[in-house]
Design a protein that fits this description.
With 64 residues, this protein is of the alpha+beta class. 14% of the residues lie in helices and 12% in strands.
C-alpha cells in the first residue's frame, strides 16, 4: 500500500474537499405563469411574487 511522501497542507485538502459539497440550484415554477424561476424571487416574466404583482412586466411594444 502506497504511503504519502509529504504531508498535505490544510489548504490543499480543503480546496479538494470543497467540491464534494456543491449542490445544484433548486428551481420552482411560478404559480401564475408557470415559468421556471428561483424560489423566493420575483418572477422575471410576469413580475409576481407570493400571489401579488410586485413589478410591472415589460411588454414588447414595437413601433413601426
Amino acid at each position: 500500500m502506497a504511503n504519502p511522501k509529504h504531508k498535505l497542507s490544510r489548504l490543499r485538502t480543503r480546496r479538494r474537499r470543497a467540491n464534494d459539497f456543491i449542490k445544484t440550484i433548486n428551481l420552482s415554477k411560478c404559480p401564475s405563469c408557470r415559468e421556471v424561476k428561483m424560489p423566493h424571487r420575483i418572477c422575471k416574466s410576469c413580475g409576481y411574487y407570493n400571489g401579488r404583482e410586485i413589478i410591472r412586466a415589460q411588454e414588447s411594444t414595437k413601433t413601426s
